[in-house]
What we know:
Blueprint: H1 2-14, E1 25-30, E2 36-43, E3 46-52, H2 61-76, E4 82-85, H3 90-95, E5 99-104, E6 108-112, H4 117-125, E7 135-140, H5 147-157, E8 162-167, H6 177-187, E9 194-198
Parallel strand pairs: 3-4, 7-8, 8-9
Antiparallel strand pairs: 1-2, 2-3, 4-6, 5-6
Amino acid sequence: DSRTLAQIDKLLEQEGIQRDKNLDYICAMFDDEFRVIGTASCFGNTLRCFAVDHSHQGEGLLNEILSHLMEVEAARGNTHLFLYTKPSTSKFFNDLGFFEIARVPGKLVFMENRRSGFAGYLAALAPTARSEGVSAAIVMNANPFTLGHQYLVETAAAQCDTLHLFVVSEDASLVPFAIRRNLVEAGTAHLSNVILHDCGPYIISSATFPSYFLKDSET
């Protein structure tokens, strides 16, 4: 309700956080006076907007809220979770099984609940890396793959020695990922210096770039 959301916004502001517009689940914890003293939210398989009132910090509320969100995600069938938090609280989440992927100093830390998730993704890309010549990359949704997409790839491939072509893996488009990937593969088969990759959850996904999947009026 609007009253609770107003309290949540106030609590987030006190902690230097602005409520994310890309949310599909918000939870709140109340004291005996029905005042919001803790909150956190989800969007897809990402956890974000954590805050606990400073007068109640150290009472284990953040742990309870995190456990609740993980139960919500489990009910959704999400086991690979991502989390946004402030640098000052990243150690707390690390102790609870989340591992840092990247950070913006003084702003936020991006984490996941798999120790070797991002490192494993990078390791899978390593065999395709080439030390000689010029390398370039394209990230493409190809919904669907058109002659325009093909021309873009051909133009880029002609200007480098190796072109890494990443196809957005998330099934949030009209054309399913498996079909999009097959179309891209067939449409670039004549280009010997193009290496095809799946974006996975790290390059343009609802975890890393949620607004990409929303209509302009919703971003």
